[in-house]
């Protein structure tokens, strides 16, 4: 998983850090004041919700925008 801020980029080994992902990413992903940008996020959203109970608010999906 790649996570980027305005100033930094992170690569997360989701297999190695599986037990920590939900714990540390639930709050920032549900924060509506932070825009999340993904591409083709439909499967990613299902995976995040099912496996980590992470719900994403304020999502901009570039894959959805480019087909319209």
Automatic annotation (TrEMBL):
Signal peptide: none annotated. Residues 1-64 form the 3'-5' exonuclease domain. It comes from Zea mays (Maize). GO terms for biological process: exonucleolytic trimming to generate mature 3'-end of 5.8S rRNA from tricistronic rRNA transcript (SSU-rRNA, 5.8S rRNA, LSU-rRNA). This is 3'-5' exonuclease domain-containing protein. GO terms for molecular function: 3'-5'-RNA exonuclease activity; nucleic acid binding. PANTHER family: 3'-5' EXONUCLEASE FAMILY PROTEIN, EXPRESSED, POLYMYOSITIS/SCLERODERMA AUTOANTIGEN-RELATED.
């Amino acid at each position: 998983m790649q996570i980027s801020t305005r100033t930094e980029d992170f690569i997360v080994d989701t297999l190695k850090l599986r037990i920590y992902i939900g714990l540390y990413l639930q709050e920032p992903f549900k924060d509506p004041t932070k825009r999340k940008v993904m591409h083709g996020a439909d499967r990613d959203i299902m995976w995040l919700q099912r496996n980590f109970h992470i719900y994403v608010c304020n999502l901009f999906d570039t894959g959805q925008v480019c087909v319209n």
